[in-house]
Design brief:
The complex is a heterodimer of chains A (317) and B (240). Chain A is 4% helix and 41% strand. With 317 residues, chain A is mainly beta. Chain B has 240 residues and is α+β, with helices and mostly antiparallel strands. Chain B has one domain. In chain B, the strands form three sheets. A seven-stranded antiparallel β-sheet of chain B has the order 4-2-1-8-9-10-11. In chain B, strands 5-7-6 form a three-stranded antiparallel β-sheet, with no helix packed on it. The longest helix of chain B is centred in the first third of the chain and has 15 residues. The radius of gyration of chain B is 18 Å and the shape is globular. The chains are: A mainly beta (317), B alpha+beta (240). Chains A and B meet through loops of A and loops of B.
Chain lengths: 317, 240
Amino acid sequence: MKSKLPLVLLILFSVSCNHGSKAPIGEAHWDDGPRVGSLDLLGVSFADDLTGLIVGDISPAGEGGAIYKTADGGRTWRAIAHTPEILTSVCLLDAKRAWVAGYGGRIERTDDGGQTWKTQRTERDGEMLNSIFFIDDRHGWAAGGSGLLLRTSNGGDSWEPVSTRRVEDLWAVRFSSADAGWAVGEDGLILRSSDGGRTWAPQTSSTNKALMGLTVSADGVAVAVGASGTVLINEAGEQWRPVEAPTTESLNAVSSGKTRNLWVVGSRGVVIGSTDSGRTWAKANNISGDLASVDESRAGRGIAVGEQGTTRLLPAQ
Amino acid sequence: MKRPGVIGSILAATFALGGLFHDVDAHHAVLRFNLEEMTTTADRIFLGRCISADETDEMIAQGMLPITRYTFEVERVIKGRLARRVTFQQLGHPSHRALGKGGEVTMHGQSIKPDTFIHGMSEYKIGERFILFLIPDYLGGKVTYPVGLYQGAFTVSQMPSGQSLVRNSINNLGLFTAAYNGTSMKRSEARLIFPDQSTGASPELEELARKRGPLPLEQFISVVEQIHAAHGGQKGAIAQ
């Protein structure tokens, strides 16, 4: 009996470290979630297994737009703040600290779980932010229309515009450390930074399809997704290569890569998933509605959001 | 003369009549238009380059009002019959680059004059290309504006690959998903865009409708032409 202990420990260790070996993608079942308002939802982020935020369009009837919060893993949502601007992206660092970004280049921050919000950046004429990302409580980046890129190293107290000399809209920005990151956008654009976002250089994507979503998985693989079922991965920092996706739909977003499990959502409710950091993909069950954003908690609870208040839920595996 | 009062009351009257605003003071309180209703609401749709923008005042509705007179070199007409060079007027004066001087009034980082500036009114920079969906002239045929204000003004950008993309200032949000608001048509009159279901139309339209953000110029124009034709419209032309 004593001699078997190392083997048991080895098995237990193996299971606990293998974040990617949950139920196969084809067996995962995304369910209809509650309708959250009637407007298009554009961004979602989970802090933990229970706490998440959604942002999106504003009401044309003049009531402004809402930031929605769940404290029960997505089963119920409540509007916690009204904003005068369309918000496209949200990043939760933990259950208390979060940032939202949107049209006009507006950025807001909360430090109390969304009860109060501080405007960190007011609207600028002609600007538009599509993505905001923080890797810790100080280092953050935001990306948007016509090559707009912003960086902060003080939690967003000040945002510095960075020249990219690009005209393409940027759809997503992600960093794997305070130094190394990517931004992706229209026309197959991929930009790489290795100095915390101070400078950016283009990388070859070998596509002119719009790249809409980006993540870096737990084991450091960067994954970009986009129009016509485009999926590109980068395992070594420089070279991107296409991988086969089981769809030709437009792919709008990829989950935040807290583990090796990744989910991608897109038009006509398409959901594809990977358990190996994006190297291989399988299609999940069909769900309806165009989906704009997706995230997954560390425990495997997923949420996708999209048109006209649509939410879809993946129970914790 | 108190200009804001005059402008405010005229705007309130004209926009309220057109069902555009729920509240004239709120930039975002503008009715959302999908592309089909935008197309049927406009009486002129064209692709062109702005070649001049002149700020002036003009006697309109028994008062001197600030207007901006824009001239465009027309490349292509999608709806209507237009001269090669088109001039139209919009109420209000545009914003300008802020100089950072004391006392300067700014909005969204741009310098404005509060008594002549109209929030939400589209502005066009000289040299830039746009697709404009303009409503029929109003206030005695003297002024117009894009359908849904900023929604009906699409900037054309050329990508390094040579591809041209178009988007309005809300990144084309709602072009295929906004409900019919009843300004010019009802849901029952829809031909190509059905926000609550799959369009069931051409693969080209399906692909365009699923794309977020900027849209390819030629495909965008083609779909607008399809919509216009589906409502019995004559093909747009440049009058010789």
